[in-house]
Fold:
Amino acid sequence: MLDINHISKTFHPGTISAKTALNDLSVHLAPGDFVTIIGSNGAGKSTLFNAVAGSFYVDAGTITLDGRDITYLPEHKRAKIIGRMFQDPLKGTAPNMTIEENLALAYVRSGEKSSLFSTLKKKDKDIFRERLALLNMGLEDRLKHPVGLLSGGQRQALTLLMATMSTPKILLLDEHTAALDPGTAEKVLELTKHIVEKDHITCMMITHNMHQALELGNRTFLMSDGNIVLDVKGEERKGLTVDDLLDKFRQGTGKDLDNDRILLST
Amino acid sequence: MLFILQTALELGFLYSLVPLALFISFRILNIADMTTDGCFVLGAAVSVTMAAAGHPFLGIVCAMLSGACAGIVTAFLQTRMGVPSILAGIITNTGLYTVNLMVMGWSSNVSLLKTETLYTIFKKTGIGKSWNEAILSGLIVILVAALVFAFLGTRLGLMIRASGDNIDMVRASSINPAFTITVGLAVANSLTALSGALVGQYQSTTDINSGTGIVVVALACLIIGETCLGKKTILKGVIAAILGSLIYRTIYAIILYTKVIPVQGLKLMTAVVVALAIFAPTFKDWLAFQKQKKTAGKRGQKNA
Structure:
């Protein structure tokens, strides 16, 4: 599904603050893979997502998604086949527009050839209501409310719905529950699991919760210094504990996993 | 008194399309579009020149198209050439000065003598008697406002609104912000040019300097309207732009006729009105804060 071949990215090259964020990284994801990613601060986790989503172009290497070379495809064009969520719940929705208007924009991604001048039909609203009911947050009765009035958790759940409205080829989740309170985070995570399984979405999720990293999905990447140092999957992953994972990290990189948020959460 | 009201209605409607344009560029897209001054004159110049050539209706259409082009130039500078948005508008505005002179045949003003305009044609129908100019302007403005409101509810309209609200989300929805900003500025500037076109034919004349300061006045109108109506919904915003213009022109007409202030002092008066209008929401907040400070202190004492 996703093929990353030897990509590199250096920020501010040739200056004193030059930073190699991705260092000759290669990886292959099979369709339906659900990968959890953990790593030290500045290991390049978010940079990897930015490279895949097209926030910048890589210095070297190629990225292929579903057989299509997207290395130099502009960000907004990639967005048609890539769903993405950030840690900040404010990033994924337009606060001054209503819930239904936000969902209507997510509809644009579906690539349905409808006119630019079409308006929201009752049929569309019925679909929105049905989808929102899945969230179990009562949002289906608040279609006309501005999104700015919703809580962070509600906004993040709505963003999840929008990102998966038309099934993306790959879903990128960048600590999308980290800014939520534990109860809401749990709920959004359940929803994520449900939707990803239902639609068989290939998915990568950055997390700082080691337990979560092992419980969710079928693969775990450990990242350090702009590369994937450990790719745990299959039999090897079953029965693995957090301590095993930390040990493996130490063996792989020769140093301790250094991420303040991970240390705080374990 | 009635005469004052009549003038206020006529000018209020005629100029109300500029605040409506700013509602799209400034409020929705969140761009301070400095193309406005030159674009207003462009609309007037095209419309009056074409009316002089015997095409008053076509003149209005061409004025709107030329305004849209001006908007596209500003958007191009901004989205493709990396010029900061305010500077992009100022650059287009400066260039338009020459374009406007060119449109008027290298003359700094054009007057229509005995040529037919939209207004002389409508006057012949006898509708509304002496109020015919206010009625025609009002009808056009209401029609345009309804179209703008409908447009903002379409998929394209939503895309434009989202571009000013959360540009990250727009990119993530596979929408090209450069495209939506271009369309938004084109629509806004076609409205500004339409206003200029109507004013030009109404006054049967146009002058190269007739647009000076119009962006500030229009901004004041928009804020006056929003202060009265609130700006929660798109419908309110559209109505506020027109209402604000009517209120502003009423104040303006009263000053003009009662001569409380000498006519030469009008510019200063306009500036004062604009400053006060923009100050109003801040003043409201300040007042609320003072009240809160007072009552909070008392509440505190009660508890102590």
